[in-house]
Structure formats: C-alpha cells, structure tokens
C-alpha cells in the first residue's frame, strides 16, 4: 500500500487550517461597506484612528490578561514593517479616493490580490502555477465588472496624484501580505502594536488633513465599534495567520470575493440593487477562486 511520509498529513492539515483562518479575514472585510455606511459622515482618517484605536486597545488588554504582553517586544524593524504596512495602505487608499474618480481608484487599488499571487512566487517553498494566475485574473475581471457596473472607465487627466496613490496602496498591502511570510517567527499578537501605532498616525493625519465629524447617535457609534471589532480589527490578526502559514495564492485569489460579498450585503440591507453585472461578477469571482484553490479543494489524498 502507498506510504504517507511522516508529518506530511499534519503539515497539510495545519496549512489548510491557517488558510481557512485567513479566509475569515476576507469575510470580515466584506462587512466594510455595510458598517462603513452605518458610520455616517465620519472622515476616513478619523474613522481609521477610532477603529484601530479600539481594536488595538482591546487586543492590548487581552495580552495583559493572558500574560502575553511580552510578545510586543519586537525589533524596531518589525514595528516599522507592521506599522508602515497597515498605515501606509490606508493612508494611500484614502488619498486615492479623494484625488481620483472613486471607481477608477478602487479598481487600481484592487490589483493587490493579483500582486499577492505574483509576488508569492518569490517566496521560499512557493510555486506560482498557471491555475493560480488564471483564477486570479478571473477574480480581477469580476471585481472590475462589479466596481464599474459594466460601464466603461475613463482614466482622465488631472488625477495623477490619486492614481499614483491607488498604485501605492495596492503595492503597500500586497508587499505587506507577502513579506509577512518572511517574518513567520513574529507572533500574530504583535499585530496589536501595529494597530495602536496605526491609530496614532491616523489621528495625527486627521488633525492635519481633515475636519472633525464625530459619529452621531448610538447606531453610528455601534457601526464604528463593529468596524473595529471585525474588518478593522480581528481581520488583520486572522489575515496574519493566513499569509504566514496558509496557502497565500489561494488567499490572494479569494480576496476578490470581498467586494462581491460587500456588494451583496449592501443589496440585502437595501443600499443597492441586484443587477446583471453583479450576477456576472459573482460567477467570475467564484469560478476564479475555485480554479486558484484547485490544489486545496481537489487534492488527492494518499491512502494509508
């Protein structure tokens, strides 16, 4: 009978578990649109400061109560990497949508899942295969259809700053996600520190660049707290586990489901309509994710 190499099954199981944990981040990011809409007119950098401040503080308290506060003692390069990654992505994304047409800026920004798949080919032990590329390109096509609504796009002149910022945001998040793999020895608990530093930098940027508008009423504050607990909180911890120990190509391709699920949630709660372009985007993104995850879904298991 065929023999299974010692430890292989356990390694595959751990990789699958980490991938599924990472995918939970994509599900949480799908709630960004819904909770963001519920947060009212709070400017983006202030919203960023509030959410990362809440999530980072909760994580800090948990570390103190669990006796793991020592895990925040990391080299300066680790702190710089995590803070620049989280803050840089959000700062450039907000700059992009303020200085370029939002549809085009969002589309450029959403090349980050494709870049994750491409950049992952340079990681030790990873191999970029054709089905990863096909699946991710299908996801990109679906996201483009979803964002543009099936209409044409016009990268008009005069928006160079916004387009450049959108490219920077895509590069920041894809690089952060892939390079996190090289810092696999850094515990996920350190993300709490990255969140707190991101909150601080976002707060400073808000004071310098935005007019202060606080959430109005219990519902808007509840939306801010929901954002802090999940898409701008727990999601970054589960994503860290996924990109460090899971199948990073599958995570990259599956990330395109976030804008789709976000749109479907908004439609379900009355913030939009179900259109043909949404349906076609659903098919393209789902098919792309299945193709990219072929190895994980259809892996032949050796008989003991």
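-> sequence recovered:
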């Amino acid at each position: 009978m065929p023999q299974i190499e010692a430890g292989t099954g356990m390694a595959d199981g751990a990789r699958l578990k980490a991938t599924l944990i990472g995918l939970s981040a994509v599900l949480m990011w799908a709630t960004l649109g819904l909770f963001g809409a519920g947060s009212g007119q709070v400017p983006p950098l202030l919203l960023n400061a509030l959410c990362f401040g809440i999530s980072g503080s909760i994580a800090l308290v948990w570390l103190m109560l669990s006796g793991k506060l020592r895990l925040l003692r990391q080299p300066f390069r680790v702190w710089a990497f995590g803070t620049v990654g989280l803050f840089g992505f959000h700062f450039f994304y907000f700059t992009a949508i303020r200085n370029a047409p939002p549809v085009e800026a969002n589309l450029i920004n959403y090349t980050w899942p494709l870049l994750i798949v491409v950049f992952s080919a340079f990681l030790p032990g990873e191999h970029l295969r054709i089905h990863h590329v096909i699946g991710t390109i299908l996801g990109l096509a679906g996201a483009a259809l979803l964002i543009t609504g099936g209409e044409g796009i016009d990268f008009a002149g005069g928006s160079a700053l916004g387009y450049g910022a959108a490219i920077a945001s895509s590069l920041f998040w894809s690089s952060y996600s892939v390079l996190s793999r090289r810092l696999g020895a850094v515990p996920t608990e350190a993300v709490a520190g990255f969140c707190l530093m991101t909150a601080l930098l976002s707060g400073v940027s808000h004071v310098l660049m935005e007019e202060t508008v606080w959430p109005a009423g219990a519902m808007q504050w509840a939306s801010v707290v929901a954002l802090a607990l999940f898409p701008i909180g727990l999601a970054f911890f589960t994503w860290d586990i996924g990109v460090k120990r899971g199948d990073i190509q599958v995570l990259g391709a599956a990330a395109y489901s976030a804008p789709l699920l976000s749109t479907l949630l908004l439609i379900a709660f009355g913030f939009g309509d179900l259109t043909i372009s949404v349906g076609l985007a659903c098919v393209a993104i789902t098919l792309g994710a299945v193709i990219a995850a072929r190895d994980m879904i259809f892996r032949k298991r050796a008989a003991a």
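The radius of gyration is 20 Å.
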